[in-house]
């Protein structure tokens, strides 16, 4: 709900308030954002207003009529250069006379009943109220509009800005942020998620004491180096208690999040397009739109903030046919084949996939042009007749006859120099003509600033997607930007390339997702190099990382869940030793991590042992039974000695939980599983799936029970292993939700003093999956 009391504005969600007012000098003063306050008049707001009688020494007052106000020491909604505020600015414009001073003052505010559309970028849907504030720099006839959209049930407020050039001269926008939050103190921790290829989303907590802290990307995409989702929290905030702000950007390009502590102890947070290597020319009457920023506050810890972010993304960011639809279990061909695919191999693997219960078969890279490695053929999207002698449609029809849907890998934004497309259209790439070019993965980037390129790719991809019964598309993007130059744009606009590329990308994706609404598109960019809310407006799920190692994936997926729901996180079970780390992890652990989200497999099912194949078959059957909760349930991270997850159905009648350990601690027998999100006063059945273990896992300990000596890895050892299995522990508990949320003491872990069905086989990287079913409500 949006309310105005005299010169103050109050934005309310179910549990939060956002309040600002008009200063006597006509700037907007930020007063409060946090836990919901009871406000019904301007009198209620007065205690939130900072008291100023005289400006601090060695500062600049805004004007002589208001000697109490130095903008350097004010909490503002939009900071600007040139009138005394020397902090990181919200907006920076260079005018025709060369001046960079901006003096945007309040003109009017109005409440709209729907979201004002953004012409060039995606934005959140399903809101009912919007506050539109107009500020004017009268000296230069430039308008700055601030938009605030309120999503009450999600505790979400979004912000964005628009610059309109109403002058008769050209201006240059060097910076336009999406949101700004000014705090009265700096007692916060900034949490960022950083990494690189196969090492995404490492959580870093920065205690804010002084200076400027920046989280940013200059790769041309949102990047694996610095995800645009960040958090500001109290120093003692936990998963279940304390203040936290979750902050994100609906944008897939270079982004910038910064926190600055002032010499007066205040703190400014700012987020938007990265101003480095950015400038946008506006002629008379032209506008520039910032991406939309998403803000969420919770007084109840990280889990509560995440819960609201997850619901908001599922309902207001993801859209189309697959928005709330359960996603299929797929088998991807990449790690089983790499580039060495052919029709015979793929059909053999598809038949095994069908027997295992897989629903979708995906042909990854290597199917087109002369694509025997990564050095050629990107841009030539015609099937390779040597690998697919009967054509793409024939293969798809055969896969369909087996009983599987078919998906395909593409990388439309890229081109190899060794390709027919590049030889025909060298002017279509981002490169500096006549210069040596720096490449990534032997490929160059097509110039999506150029509408002709966007139109061409729309046509080529439409022809491909229409050529057979394609149900799924994995859209990849495997390099970062270099040699930033558009051969389409004039020299005066080369600083616009990064942003115009993203505008072109969104236009391309909009064209294709509207033309093929039933295709399930999955985003990918060398794994998590473009995992952001902008892509999720077109692709309802994103490949989280090219790293499928179970231990790495635990940490990567755990970090994603702070800002993104399970329904958008794509995970695969792969072979061991893992192809990225050479680590060996148990098959059940690989599944137990991957099943929290969108489950897939990336291994040669046709080459597996019978034992491993049957285990995967059982995993898939189990996942199907609980799929909706795994994908769309409410997710909780639980802090304890072990890694601990829990996901709960919306009606709280069903839940699944997981524990995992990294390395065994000797003689550590006792562990707990802790649930979250259950009804305290309901009775639940808590249980695991009974397992048996190969006796070979115990090595030569077999001789402690065998009447004859058995040499490890001998023929006799293998024969015994065929007939003798070691029993796994059974958990079978009936109790209340409140007890389960306090914690279940599990069967003891193996500690070298004996083994029976009362002992948990729990080695390095071991895990357990638990199931919770409501039995009755306590009367």
Structure in words:
With about 775 residues, the protein is of the alpha+beta class. The chain folds into 3 domains: about 70-315, Distorted Sandwich (Beta-galactosidase, Chain A, domain 5), CATH 2.70.98; about 330-415 and about 455-480 and about 520-630, TIM Barrel (Alpha-Beta Barrel), CATH 3.20.20; about 655-690 and about 730-775, Immunoglobulin-like (Sandwich). The chain is built from 14 helices and 42 strands. It is globular and about 100 Å long.
Describe what is shown at a glance:
The protein has three domains: 72-317, Beta-galactosidase, Chain A, domain 5, CATH 2.70.98; 330-413 and 453-479 and 520-632, TIM Barrel (Alpha-Beta Barrel), CATH 3.20.20.70; 654-691 and 728-777, Sandwich (Immunoglobulin-like). It is built from 14 helices and 42 strands.
Q: Topology of this protein?
A:
Blueprint: E1 2-5, E2 8-12, E3 16-22, E4 28-35, H1 42-45, E5 91-94, E6 105-112, E7 129-137, E8 142-151, E9 156-165, E10 171-183, E11 189-194, E12 202-207, E13 211-216, E14 230-233, E15 244-250, E16 255-261, E17 267-273, E18 280-282, E19 287-289, E20 292-298, H2 301-317, E21 330-332, H3 334-337, H4 343-356, E22 360-363, H5 392-402, E23 405-410, E24 414-415, H6 420-424, E25 444-445, H7 451-466, E26 470-475, H8 497-515, E27 520-523, H9 533-536, E28 541-543, H10 550-560, E29 569-574, H11 587-594, E30 598-602, H12 610-632, E31 634-639, E32 643-648, E33 654-660, E34 672-673, E35 682-688, E36 692-694, H13 715-723, E37 725-727, E38 732-736, H14 737-742, E39 744-745, E40 748-749, E41 759-760, E42 767-777
Parallel strand pairs: 21-22, 21-30, 22-23, 23-26, 26-27, 27-28, 28-29, 29-30, 40-41
Antiparallel strand pairs: 1-2, 2-3, 3-4, 5-10, 6-7, 7-8, 8-9, 9-19, 9-20, 10-17, 10-18, 11-12, 11-14, 13-16, 14-15, 15-20, 16-17, 24-25, 31-32, 32-33, 33-42, 34-39, 35-38, 35-42, 36-37
Helix pairs in contact: 4-5, 7-8, 10-11
């Amino acid at each position: 709900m949006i309310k105005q009391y005299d010169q103050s504005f109050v934005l309310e969600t179910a549990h939060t308030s956002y309040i600002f007012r008009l200063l006597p000098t006509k700037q907007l003063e930020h007063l409060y954002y946090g836990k919901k306050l009871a406000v019904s008049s301007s009198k209620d707001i007065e205690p939130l207003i900072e008291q100023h009688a005289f400006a601090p020494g060695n500062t600049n007052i805004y004007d002589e009529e208001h000697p109490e106000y130095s903008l350097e020491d004010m909490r503002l909604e939009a900071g600007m250069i040139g009138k005394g505020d020397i902090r990181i600015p919200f907006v920076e414009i260079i005018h025709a006379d060369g001046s960079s001073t901006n003096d945007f003052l309040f003109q009017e505010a109005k409440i709209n009943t729907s979201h004002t559309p953004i012409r060039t970028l995606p934005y959140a849907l399903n809101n009912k109220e919007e506050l539109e504030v107009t500020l004017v720099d009268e000296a230069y006839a430039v308008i700055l509009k601030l938009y605030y959209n309120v999503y009450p049930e999600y505790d979400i407020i979004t912000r964005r800005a628009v610059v309109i050039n109403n002058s008769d001269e050209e201006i240059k926008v060097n910076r336009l942020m999406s949101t700004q939050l000014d705090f009265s103190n700096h007692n916060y921790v900034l949490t960022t998620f950083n990494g690189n290829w196969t090492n995404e989303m490492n959580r870093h907590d920065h205690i804010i004491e002084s200076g400027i802290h920046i989280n940013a990307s200059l790769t041309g995409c949102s990047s694996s180096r610095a995800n645009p989702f960040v958090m500001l929290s109290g120093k003692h905030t936990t998963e279940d208690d304390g203040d936290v702000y979750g902050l994100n950007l609906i944008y897939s390009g270079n982004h910038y999040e910064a926190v600055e502590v002032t010499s007066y102890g205040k703190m400014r947070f700012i987020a938007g397009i990265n101003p480095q290597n950015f400038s946008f020319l506006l002629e008379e009457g032209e506008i520039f739109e910032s991406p939309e920023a998403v803000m969420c506050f919770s007084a109840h810890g990280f889990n509560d903030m995440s819960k609201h972010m997850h619901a908001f993304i599922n309902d207001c960011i993801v859209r189309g046919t697959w928005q709330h639809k359960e996603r299929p279990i797929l088998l991807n061909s990449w790690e089983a084949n790499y580039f060495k695919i052919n029709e015979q191999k793929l059909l053999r693997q598809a038949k095994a996939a069908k027997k295992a219960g897989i629903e979708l078969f995906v042909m990854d890279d290597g199917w087109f042009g002369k694509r025997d490695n990564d050095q050629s053929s990107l841009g030539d999207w015609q099937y390779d007749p040597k690998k697919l002698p009967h054509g793409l449609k024939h293969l798809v029809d055969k896969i369909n006859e087996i009983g599987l849907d078919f998906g395909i890998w593409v990388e439309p934004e890229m081109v190899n120099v060794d390709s027919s497309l590049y030889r025909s259209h060298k002017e279509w790439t981002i490169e500096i003509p006549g210069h040596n070019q720096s490449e990534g993965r032997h490929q160059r980037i097509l110039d999506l600033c150029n509408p002709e390129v966007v139109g061409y790719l729309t046509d080529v991809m439409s022809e491909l997607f229409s050529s057979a019964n394609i149900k799924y598309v994995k859209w990849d993007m495997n390099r970062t930007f270099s040699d930033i130059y558009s051969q389409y744009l004039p020299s005066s606009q080369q600083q616009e390339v990064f942003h115009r590329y993203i505008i072109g990308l969104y236009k391309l994706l909009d064209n294709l997702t509207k033309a093929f609404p039933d295709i399930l598109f999955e985003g990918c960019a060398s794994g998590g190099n473009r995992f952001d809310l902008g892509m999720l407006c077109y692709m309802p799920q994103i490949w989280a990382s090219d790293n499928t190692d179970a231990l790495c994936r635990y940490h990567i997926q755990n970090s994603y869940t702070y800002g993104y729901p399970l329904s958008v996180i794509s995970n695969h079970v792969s072979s061991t030793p893992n192809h990225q780390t050479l680590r060996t992890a148990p098959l059940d652990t690989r599944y137990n991590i991957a099943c929290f989200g969108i489950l897939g497999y990336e291994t040669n099912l046709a080459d597996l042992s019978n034992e491993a194949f049957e285990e995967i078959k059982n995993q898939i059957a189990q996942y199907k039974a609980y799929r909706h909760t795994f994908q769309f349930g409410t997710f909780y991270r639980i802090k304890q000695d072990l890694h601990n997850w829990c996901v709960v159905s919306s009606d709280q009648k069903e839940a699944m939980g997981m524990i995992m350990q990294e390395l065994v601690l000797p003689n550590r027998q006792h562990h707990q599983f802790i649930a979250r999100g259950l009804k305290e006063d309901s009775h639940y059945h808590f249980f695991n799936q009974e397992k048996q273990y190969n006796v070979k896992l115990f090595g030569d300990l077999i001789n402690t029970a065998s009447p004859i000596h058995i040499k490890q890895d001998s023929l006799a050892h293998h024969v015994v292993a065929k007939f003798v299995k070691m029993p796994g522990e059974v958990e079978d508990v009936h109790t209340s939700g409140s007890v389960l949320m306090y914690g279940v003491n599990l069967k003891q872990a193996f500690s070298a003093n004996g083994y029976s069905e009362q002992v948990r086989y729990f080695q390095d990287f071991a895990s357990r999956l638990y199931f919770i079913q409501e039995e009755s409500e306590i009367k």
